[in-house]
Amino acid sequence: MTAPPELSLESRRILLALARRAIEARLARRPPPVEDLPPDLREPCGAFVTLKRRRDGDLRGCVGYVEPHFPLAESVARAAVAAATADGRFDPVTAGELAGLSLDVSVLGPVRPIAPEDIRVGVHGLMIRCRGHGGLLLPQVPVEHGWDRVAFLEHTCRKAGLPSGTWEDPDAELYGFTATVFGED
Hints:
alpha+beta, Glycoprotein, Type 4 Pilin, Dna Ligase, domain 1, 2 domains, 4-stranded antiparallel sheet, 5 helices, 29% helix, globular
């Protein structure tokens, strides 16, 4: 499985700052920030942004782009705004609560078909598609919850709105990917 692009500490810092400023701009109804970016942040790449409350670590939003349709910096900025304002599981983030949230960025490697027995917890993210449903969990999710490979597969099915065990269905398509994950905290 191909790895995500290598990012310098400076590029990671830029992405985290860009994600926060993009959310701040949207909440203030200002145009998104425009920056002169290093070349590695201008390459197309999939990315997710996860928002968590600092006080208790609870999820507050997580949205991203699996496919590399946008330059990495744009993927991160768009994902950050969507995580704050369009994750249907949560009310939109308010300007007053933003300071109490921490941001994580997950920069995705290419998504490839994967066999269930090849999935490595803590290494692979997982996506399933079956019967018009789809769902994805990032590589850090099963680690945070202490899941083994089978539990990871089962929870990915549930995330897609599919019954447990769907990953064993011959019509199910499983995809794996790796990610570089970094955050503010």
